[in-house]
Amino acid sequence: MPQPKHRSAALGVALGLACTVLVTACATTTSSTGRKQYVGGVSQQQLDQLGAQAFDEQKAKKPLTQDGKQSAYVRCVVDAIVRELPPQWQQGGWDEAVFVDKNPNAFALPGGKVGVYTGIFDVARNQDQFAAVIGHEIGHVIERHHDERVTRQMGAAGAVQLLSVLAGARYGQSGSQLASQGGSVIAQTGFLLPGTREQETEADVVGQRLMAQAGFDPRQAVDLWQNMLAASASRPPEWLSTHPDPTSRIGELRKRAESLMPVYQQARAAGRKPACG
């Protein structure tokens, strides 16, 4: 449920106070969709380090696919989406990993990391539907949703533990030992947890735009979510937890798809015709 206005105002005040106390200054900015954001609790370099460390943790916990075709397929779609990002988000390249896990899930992290669970292929049944997944997840990164989450936590009681995690990401083994007292990067930052409903809606908007710009059919985002909804009949997947109402979400995706058709057609005419499989 959306937060009451007084709670949102209280959060803003708390963040403002926290930012005056912390060495790293926070900032108020506006996302590409016009949403006010509190960011800057840590630097982009630190966020990238946290993303890389969380990615390594996930690879240590879950088996990676041995299917070369799956890996090449994911890489092809990710590359096509990344080519449409602003230059600052292309620097350093993006890494992908395909995890053997039947849960229909995926994630992207600061520092250019994309993780895909093999279960997503059961609901993303063609490259356009899969591009909707990847566009959504990368949308979280470029709209600074992880930055928002960490900045919010910097103002919470767990700030000291989070700072110890940052020490581990920045200063190596001795810092990592300190960080381990507070748990893993994933546990402390919540990087792999779903975003707020506002963030999820924003990632839908940005991801659908990215897929159209890359030459993927934006109408397939509707089919993806219809598949997700059908798959959730008996047991809701992680993707649906805390996300916007699926029915209204599908309606919004359908409306945006029509407005994005000229973008998609221009991309195809310009030769952006992904053939990932």
From TrEMBL:
Its cofactor is Zn(2+). InterPro entries: Mito/Outer_Membr_Metalloprot, Peptidase_M48. Residues 1-25 form the signal peptide. Pfam families: Peptidase_M48. Keywords: Hydrolase, Metal-binding, Metalloprotease, Protease, Signal, Zinc. It comes from the Bacteria. Transmembrane segments: none annotated. The keyword Protease applies. PROSITE patterns: PROKAR_LIPOPROTEIN. Residues 70-256 form the Peptidase M48 domain. The keyword rRNA-binding does not apply. Binds 1 zinc ion per subunit. Belongs to the peptidase M48 family. PANTHER family: M48 FAMILY METALLOPEPTIDASE, METALLOENDOPEPTIDASE OMA1. This is M48 family metallopeptidase. It comes from Lysobacter hankyongensis.
